[in-house]
Structure formats: C-alpha cells, structure tokens
Amino acid sequence: MKKRTLFSNQISMAAFLVLSGIAAIASACGSAASGDGRITVLNPAVTEKLAERVPLAPRLDTLEGKTVYLVDMNYEGINGTAVMGELQNWFARNMPGVKTVLRLKSGSYISDDPALWKEIKEKGGDAVIMGVAG
C-alpha cells in the first residue's frame, strides 16, 4: 500500500473550507436568532393530524396452497432487480405448494399502483411480499 502525504496547502485549503462553512452557518443562524441565544426553527411535520389507523391483516396459518405475490417496489425506477426472482426460485425449490406471482410495481417506490392492488385482490392473492432491493 502506497502512503500519501498531505501537503500543508491541502491542509490549509481543508481548514479554509471547514471554517467558511461554519461562518456561513453561524451567519444564517444569527439572522434567525431571538437575541437570547436561541434560534427559530420550522417544524418539518406536514400536519398534526394523525393518519387513520388500519389494523394489520390476520396472519395465515400456512402458505401451503396459497398464492403469494412478490412485488418489486421499483426502487429508484430501475425496473426491478433479481432479488424477487431469487425469492421466487427459493419458493419453487423449498415450498413447491406455494404459488408465487412476481410483479413490478409501476412508477417509483413512493407512487401508488391501484391496478396492481386490484389485480391482487381480484385474482385471489393470499399474501404479498413487497421488497425494495438493489
């Protein structure tokens, strides 16, 4: 392994950048200061109203003879990964009595996919494994 020595001008530049950042933060905070050492901040919460509570679905006694949807969440819109396919292969080898259906959710991981939820409900999906993999 080759050693690399930092030169004094590199150290000076790093110190300058750090101190510049601290000065910028201090001046920004100073403009919002109330005069007694406290600063004013914004609450990042969107709303104070809690989301409606929905009970969890009851657990299945067994997966044998059931249909399990494997839903790739399409994280970052990369059109799926091999992870859910590997999970489907695992089910085929280790639990052949479980039918698996592999689906890629449309849009990104944060967008809704009503057509997929409708398909799962109408075609008798007993369980869903949703995954963000990449």
Model description:
The protein has 134 residues and is an alpha/beta fold. The protein has 2 domains: 9-40; 67-131, no CATH class. It has 3 helices and 3 strands. The chain has a 3-stranded parallel beta sheet, covered by helices on one side. The protein is extended. The two termini are 32 Å apart. The mean pLDDT is 79.
Mean pLDDT: 79
C-alpha-based Rg, rounded: 26 Å
Proportion of beta-strand residues: 5-15%
Distance between the termini: 32 Å
- Strand line-up in the sheet with most strands: 2-1-3
Main structural class? alpha/beta
Q: What's the total helix number?
A: 3
Overall shape: it is extended
Oligomer state of the chains in this structure: single chain
- Fraction of residues in H or I helices: 25-40%
Number of domains: 2
Task: Offer a concise description of the structure.
The protein is an alpha/beta fold and 134 residues long. It has 3 helices and 3 strands, in the order αβαβαβ.
